[in-house]
Design goal:
The protein is of the alpha+beta class. It is built from six helices and seven strands. Helix 1 packs antiparallel against helix 2, helix 3 packs across helix 4 and helix 4 runs antiparallel to helix 6. The protein binds adenosine-5'-diphosphate.
């Protein structure tokens, strides 16, 4: 568990660092490109200074592309997929999530007895649950409860472009301060945060969204100010409960680099 927790914290730190640096760096680049373009306006296009200002603007644009790539990296990594039971994933995460959320917050799980076979990148799905739990914790400064539940949805009748076929469902609910509609709408935007400067990067939910998309799943949020928040994630269910990673929860944790 030690190693797993360290890895999760490392990923959170890398994400924060990469996201934070890229964000601030982008602001600097905007200033550089802006002034270079103002310089160009004051110069005739034949002058040597015009060419230099043009090169500054082009270099700033290349650097902006790099920071966009950095952001994409902090959200999307190569997938390494395993066939797992979603219930096993929750049982496994439960073992170290307590350390993430602290002692004032109760962690409850409601896991369907039958296996829910999904094909996922385990580390990424764990990252999703860690990010959701960390936000839930932040929304409950006076304590409260987080419930993680699994479920099954048959794939019929929902329409509106949603993928057909049965879906494995995972719900993360908290009893925290909740959000108004405006906030709920914006939470998946990179850099959207309501936390004070230095506390939030606004990347956690963007990362969650990116991972769920990569898994061909979908996520929605339902929240009421003062009452709490419920995130519902649906992932494609795969055929057959055989050949799943055996007893993930009791399996030794992989060693990451
Ligand atoms: P950060 O946590 O750095 O602010 P996130 O992308 O993880 O960035 O979250 C963005 C915003 O979404 C948060 O600042 C908060 O306003 C809101 N939010 C996310 N999860 C919850 C939750 N469970 N309860 C209340 N607000 C939440």
């Amino acid at each position: 568990m030690e190693e797993q927790l360290r890895q999760a914290q490392k990923m959170e730190a890398i994400g924060q660092l990469a996201g934070g640096v890229a964000h601030d760096f982008n602001n600097v680049l905007t200033v550089i490109a802006g002034y270079a373009n103002i310089l160009k306006m004051d110069l005739t296009s034949e002058s040597a200074q015009y060419g230099l200002a043009d090169q500054i603007a082009a270099a700033a644009e290349r650097a902006a592309q790099l920071t966009r790539g950095l952001l994409a990296f902090s959200r999307k990594q190569a997938m390494s997929q395993q066939r797992c039971d979603l219930g096993d994933i929750v049982r496994r995460v439960q073992q170290f999530l307590g350390r993430v959320i602290g002692e004032d917050i109760q962690l409850k799980t409601e896991i369907l007895p039958e296996p829910l076979p999904v094909q996922v990148d385990l580390a990424q799905i764990e990252q999703v649950l860690i990010n959701l739990a960390a936000n839930a914790r932040d929304a409950m400064p006076g304590g409260g409860a987080i419930t993680i539940a699994t479920g099954l949805r048959d794939g019929t009748g929902h329409g509106h472009g949603e993928a057909a076929g049965p879906r494995a469902v995972i719900i993360v609910a908290d009893t925290g301060e909740g959000m108004d509609e405006d906030t709920s709408r914006r939470i998946f935007e990179p850099f959207f945060t309501t936390k004070e400067v230095g506390k939030g990067t606004g990347l956690g939910m963007a990362i969650v969204y990116g991972i769920v998309q990569q898994h061909k799943g979908n996520i929605r949020v339902s929240s009421k100010p003062g009452e709490g928040t419920v995130f519902t994630i649906e992932l494609p269910l795969i055929e057959g409960a055989d050949a799943l990673e055996p007893a993930l929860a009791s399996q030794p944790l992989p060693r990451h680099g």
